[in-house]
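For the sake of clarity, the format in which proteins appear in this thesis is described at this point. The fold follows as a row of integers, each naming the local backbone shape at the matching residue. One such record is shown here in full, so that the layout can be seen directly:
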Amino acid sequence: MPQATDADRIALAEAWIAQDPDPETREELAAIVAAARAGDAAAAADLADRFDARLAFGTAGLRGEIAAGPNRMNRVLVSQGAAGLAAYLLERADGRTPSVVVGFDGRRNSEAFARDVAEVMAGAGVRAILLPRLLPTPVLAFAVRHLDTSAGVMITASHNPPNDNGMKVYLGGDDAGSQIVAPADAEIAAHILRVAETTTVTQLPRGAVETAPESVVDAYVSETAAIAERPAAQPRVVYTAMHGVGWETMRRVLETAGFDVPALVSAQIEPDGRFPTVAFPNPEEPGAMDLSFAAAREAGADLVIANDPDADRLAIAIPDPGTEEGYRRLTGNEVGLLLGWQVAERAGAEGAGGTLACSIVSSPGLEAIAHAHGLGFASTLTGFKWISRAPGLLFGFEEALGYLVNPATLRDKDGISAGVAFLSLAARLAAEGRTIADRLDELVERFGCFASSQVSIRVTDLSRIAAVMARLRAEPPAAVGGVRVDRIEDLATGVDGLPPSDVLRIRLDGGARVMVRPSGTEPKLKVYIDAAATQGSVAERRAAASDLVARIESGMRELVA
């Protein structure tokens, strides 16, 4: 295929401008075209970046920076995506009218993108239902099942940088409200490309859209509150929405469940797509919870609960006098093990069977908890599109602050229900005169210390990630941090019945484990390190596991540098 020239790209850009319904991105692209025509090399390179590739639609849907062109998120790309999804649903409809429910968060352009999706899908013959206002992603995931729709679309980029947005797709029917997986992603992507190649956005018919009743939100609140234990004590809690959409729904759930209204991080409580107080609106990022810690110190809080901007993730912090801030954010693995243990105990008390599940990069401690309680365990590829499909699922988590505590209600991670479940645990412990820190000690004493760490390398050139993965495959290390490598499993070939995935699992002598994979949603290479210690006192177990993880982390940093 011949290489595109500057003139080719200018022609593509002008055709894009002609079909773009957004005046802001039309003007942006027109200015770049004018500069490129005038011989501006930077503008020509910008056009090449925008038009020589296209944002790929996959199991994570679409996600990228808001700007003009097929390699960015914008109203043209979203409309094409909606038309492609509609064609996919109609193809599978067997003569019935398919349906979709569409939600949106508080990010830039979220509502406009959501209306485009709903109107284009309605114009194609799909019954389109728009949630009544900006709401958390878990409410949309719930609505797919509650309304029994064929599909759901959530407009969000979760915890990505402020100028990003995305389109996340769920399927009803046999998929039971889970996110799409292969081969549906490729089939939808093929329909989207056909639309992009044969039809302009101005030619796509638009139809009438229904607005979902408030009863959908009421039902989510009611069913989520029902998982909580009535509090026998009221821990002092600080809550932050991280400039997202979680607070209104979280407040209603807490009140319905009988919990006091927490103290708030007021500067972060209202939706604001600029995310003015954080560099990245992700509770995992350094500094993101500084305002939460300050509010917790002022309130003398026992617990900090944080949601990310679309409230599908949960972060927890507890008092820790050994830190400068006075509080420590628990790792996603620590929260996942505590919640999983809580679910396992309840299942045992009720005589229920089922499965605890986590992603392959999450703590192996969940398997120990499952086996100790006579429950099944499933290890899945990363993402709740896989975790939610584990047979007999009682609870699922991934270390990136994602937890599913109520799979009968929805099939995606939910930071609101997880927050309420964790608060229930804290309240029960408080009534017994104990704390979350005490519970963590109890977990180590009973199951062992499962220590973990992560190396995350953000890149501007994605080829760097591919190069590191290729080098590790071609020149596998004999040892990591002085610990001998037992074997390396390349999940690209399919291992343990898992679908092929670009992941390397390095198993070390003594049972420690390293996972290496490209991020599915961000330009990052991620390395996950896990080690366990089961001998000695609680303090000795923690020291042994932490020291081993630190050695392995140092070795991996050298390997992926």
Observations:
- The longest strand covers residues 449-458.
